[in-house]
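Today's session is about reading a structure prediction critically. Students often jump straight to the picture, but the first step is always the sequence itself: look for stretches that repeat, for charged clusters, for runs of hydrophobic residues. Only then move on to the predicted structure, which in these notes is written as discrete structure tokens rather than atom positions. Here is the chain we will use throughout the hour.
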Amino acid sequence: MKLFGLTGGIGMGKSTAGQLLAQMQVEVADTDLIAREVVEPGQPALEELQAAFGNEIMLPGGTLNRQALARIAFADTEARHRLESILHPRIRAIWLSRVETWGTQHRDAGVVIIPLLFETKAEVYFDATICVACSALTQAERLRARKWSLQQINERRQAQWPLEKKMLLSDYVVWSEGSLEVSREQLTRIISGFRRDVSERRSKL
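Below is the predicted structure for this chain, in token form.
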């Protein structure tokens, strides 16, 4: 199985790329979605977060107030590192388990979406890496459409490596400025090239 790690800046189209890949019959694990799973009520991670950051990150029904936690974590580097130390090991264990399952099911390709792929040195787990990117202007427009403030945008940008560095380190770059079809074509070239190589090798056996 060919395993790809997919990364990129916030608001640059990682989740959309994941949806397009799933339509191409590629297995996809999105760590943003996994992060939501591990903080559901009753999960040990939620209890640790409450102990670390206090009751102000909790909603009356016992669920996590994600906005309150984000305000704390992204305004303070030490708090963000504390948050990551609680969540990242659990998230990694889950997607590694899914990758193992894909292997036993003999899937030909899988993708794990990790916003902090290079920052957390997760690239060692993958055969190749893909960076989904767009201009800073387009990124800001997309995040403002989500009702993000300029402060929130800048805090998230500062919490990640510069996009140029991620692009340089990646094996492939998908530029997401255009339509969905343009993104689909770029991803198709990446996956089809791999699948063509596999087919040719098998035909020689």
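Discussion point for the tutorial: The chain has a mean pLDDT of 93.
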